[in-house]
Amino acid sequence: MEKKFSQIPMEFVAPEKDDQQEQKEIVVAEQTIIADQSPTIKEEEPVISNEQSKKSLSKRGRPSLKEIDITADLVQIPPDEILFQKQYYSIGEVAKWFRVNQSLVRYWETEFDILQPRKNRKGDRFFRPVDVKNLLLIYDLLRRRKFTLEGAKDYLKNAKRAEEKFAMIQSLERIKSFFLELKASL
After folding, report:
1. Half-sphere exposure of 175 toward its Cβ, with a 13 Å CA cutoff?
2. Which long-range contacts (CB under 8 A, 24 or more apart) does 182-185 make?
3. Dmax over Cα atoms in the chain, in whole Å?
4. CA 90 to CA 126: how far, in whole Å?
5. Distance between CA 180 and CA 182 in Å, rounded?
């Protein structure tokens, strides 16, 4: 009483850039056909090209320096006028602005004394606008200027007027971006 299994023909063609989505759907459809035939059939692993395997790698663990460098300039903190309208911001909002995990913000809080968010009875952290500015300074030291944790701590302790220097650098970067936009529009 053995069942005979019919073989499903499969064509493997090098994926084109526009047809990648269609090929993913075909592979999924073929897998469902194989799974629906019989529960005793051993499912085969789908064939994935090198490009797809690189994209589907797990996002767990430490990001590469290249990824950190790319995201270092993508911080989306609102301007001071809008930032100082609210007294407190949740850790979730702050983590979204910096594009980091909440756990990293909590870790930086334990490492740096200048970060002192308020905590409610439940233990939730609420950051004042001043804390957000200090976090921006720490983020700049660690991610853009590539300081180590110890180096950033020493810099903040020893450097007089570190916040003023950082504010000056930020204003110069805004002027630079204005000139680059002006140049692009010409």
Report:
1. 6
2. none
3. 86
4. 5
5. 5
